[in-house]
Design brief:
It contains nine helices and 16 strands. It is an alpha/beta fold. Strands 7-15-14-9-10-11-12-8 form an eight-stranded mixed beta sheet. It has a six-stranded mixed beta sheet with strand order 3-2-4-5-6-13, with helices on both faces. The longest helix is centred in the middle third of the chain and has 16 residues. The protein is globular and about 50 Å long.
Length: about 350
């Protein structure tokens, strides 16, 4: 099978990274988190700027601004050759409102990393479907760099900084990600394939739109997902949606992030998340690695959408086998073209 990847151009020291409100607002109480994010990114060697909509207290309903305003600012950043990466300030409930307003030709002409998870999962999945862009399912400003990172031990922060720096600057694969004691083998086996995923409710939602990933994109993929809030029964239902949609019949493996604040998954509750996953998978004999540290529960290991990964559930290892960035230059791709053709088996 031939797949198309659009890898962003590798960043270098001194490049400009912009923190932007791509979904929810910035409450006054979280202004310090943005300031801490600036410090984290500067320690990685980048210049950092805030986009105009990222102002404490600014909001429209549950969003930082109207979908049209957010899309306009996002497109401005995508078109600006000085901007080399965009970091979402937070998740929320807004991306569905502007999926049809994104300048995909600007992405094809000058692909750049967009970092975020939660609602930002929609952007990664849709932009990957439409252009082949590698999406950086990774930490954001408020809940990540300026939040959970700050409470992590110093050694862990240094480890994460190096992983993220390499993710954005190196044309060499990261290789094996650092495992933690929480990782569990829920079904043994090994698989290699492109990482596809995000928050599970967003995966289910995007497949109901005209921007859905073609089912072929899931052939041989390593599906990664996590969830926050709601009920255990909701997770079971989202997995059933993926089953009915034919996704579970096509993937080669599954990686499940640490859940957060899901009713019915409290310690000692039944069924467990493992039991829910295996119930829906049935006799599909694919490896499943559970409780991997990405998602809403704390500092995220990056899951670059579209990048080939190696999974060995029994050994509890997950490896990034390809770089997330490439040697492209601004203007290298003409409108309508995709870069970095990758042939995979």
């Amino acid at each position: 099978m031939t797949r198309q990847l659009l890898r962003p151009r590798a960043l270098k020291a001194g490049d400009l990274v912009v923190i932007a409100s791509l979904s929810g607002p910035l409450p006054d109480a979280y202004e310090p988190n943005v300031e801490q994010t600036v410090a984290v990114l500067e320690r990685m060697g980048f210049r950092v700027r805030r986009a105009p909509l990222l102002r404490a207290g600014r909001r429209h309903w549950w969003s930082a601004a109207t979908p049209e305003e957010i899309a306009a600012e996002f497109n401005t950043l995508l078109r600006d050759p000085e901007v080399r990466a965009i970091v979402a300030s937070d998740g929320g409930q807004t991306a569905l409102g502007y999926l049809d307003l994104i300048d995909v030709e600007a992405i094809r002409a000058d692909p750049k990393p967009v970092l975020g998870y939660s609602d930002i999962s929609l952007l990664h999945l849709v932009l990957h479907a439409r252009t082949g862009l590698v999406g950086f399912h990774a930490d954001m400003a408020v809940p990540g760099f300026g939040g959970s990172w700050q409470s992590a031990p110093a050694a862990r922060q240094a480890e994460l900084r190096e992983i993220y720096r390499k993710l954005m600057t190196s044309e060499e694969p990261i290789g094996t990600l650092p495992a933690s004691p929480s990782w569990e083998c829920w079904r043994p086996g090994h698989a290699e394939g492109p990482l596809i995923g995000g928050v599970i409710n967003r995966i289910a939602l995007v497949q109901a739109t005209r921007f859905a990933l073609p089912l072929e994109r899931f052939d041989g993929a390593v599906l990664f997902w996590e969830e926050m809030g709601g009920l255990a029964a909701h997770v079971w239902s989202y997995l059933q949606v993926l089953r009915h949609g034919g996704i579970l019949d096509r993937i080669a493996g599954m990686v499940v992030g640490v859940p957060r604040e899901i009713g019915g998954l409290e310690p000692g509750a039944s069924p467990t998340l493992r039991e829910i996953v295996l119930d829906v998978l049935g006799d599909r004999d694919i490896p499943v690695l559970g409780n991997v540290d990405f998602g809403h529960a704390g500092p995220n290991l990056p899951m670059p959408v579209g990048v080939r990964a190696g999974l060995d559930a029994e050994r509890r290892t997950l490896s990034l086998l390809e770089p997330a960035v490439g040697p492209g230059r601004v203007g290298a791709a003409r409108p309508g073209e995709r870069q970095d053709r990758v042939t995979s088996s």
